[in-house]
Design brief:
Blueprint (H helix, E strand, L loop, with lengths): L2 H8 L3 H7 L16 H10 L2 H8 L7 H12 L4 H11 L6 H6 L9 H12 L4 H14 L7 H8 L6 H17 L1 H9 L5 H13 L5 H8 L5
């Protein structure tokens, strides 16, 4: 057992494990230790540079928490090119939504032009969580003033129909309805997506406090029955 694995097991919380495990149905229970996210987020900051590099190069990892730790380390990388190389190496080993959605690097907001090219490539992938991460990046960095209609066109062309891809698309559409309503209501009105994604996007938008009551009432009329 590695030193990092020993530390993670020392932080195991059985109650948290029992609560969280059912929320990630695709995970092998034997790989789930049960460590709270704030513990791993802090640990990612405390690891030395050499330890981080050795850990990032040690793919695949054995435990879910190692993958979460990996995602937190990636989220702290300030250098754009280094991040892209490392996230590209990691995404093939991402096996659930929890790890995928933990990769959240705020420094990418400074590199929106080159990042967009990477996102477009990710959206064409056959890897579930590479596609999910690409949509997540569009949602995180390219709404509001940074939105362009071509972003939606790229999402429309996604070929994967996996549940976790469709859920992220629905989340993206719902967030777009909150931030760029006039642009995002069009694919809802024209039913660009399958019934599940369509209705889930409407549901999430209706549940959002950022969508006006007027818009919510209209969106309800667009549900597919």
């Amino acid at each position: 057992m590695t030193e990092i694995q020993k530390y993670l097991f020392s932080q195991q919380d059985p109650g948290y494990r029992a609560f969280t495990l059912p929320l990630i149905p695709t995970i092998d229970p034997d790989t789930f230790i049960g460590v709270r996210l704030p513990v791993m987020k802090q640990y990612a900051k405390e690891l030395g540079a050499k330890e981080r590099e050795e850990f990032l190069s040690g793919l695949p990892h054995r435990y879910h928490e190692e993958n979460i730790l990996h995602a937190f380390i990636l989220s702290n990388i300030k250098e754009y090119d280094g991040f892209i190389v490392k996230v590209d190496a990691f995404l093939p080993f991402v096996e659930n939504w929890s790890v995928c959605d933990t990769i959240c690097n705020k420094y990418l907001a400074k590199y929106k032009e080159p990042l967009l090219k990477e996102i477009y490539a990710w959206l064409q992938s056959e890897e579930i969580y590479r596609v999910r991460y690409g949509v997540k990046c569009l949602m995180n960095y390219y709404l509001g003033d940074d939105f362009a209609p071509e972003h939606l066109q790229k999402v429309k062309k996604i070929k994967l129909t996996d549940y976790y891809v469709r859920m992220m698309i629905a989340w993206y559409l719902a967030t777009g309805l909150a931030k760029n309503y006039d642009d995002f209501v069009k694919p809802i009105e024209e039913k660009w997506f399958d019934d599940f994604t369509h209705n889930k996007a409407i549901q999430k938008a209706i549940e959002s406090y950022r969508v006006s009551e007027e818009h919510k009432q209209y969106l309800k009329t667009l549900k597919v029955k």
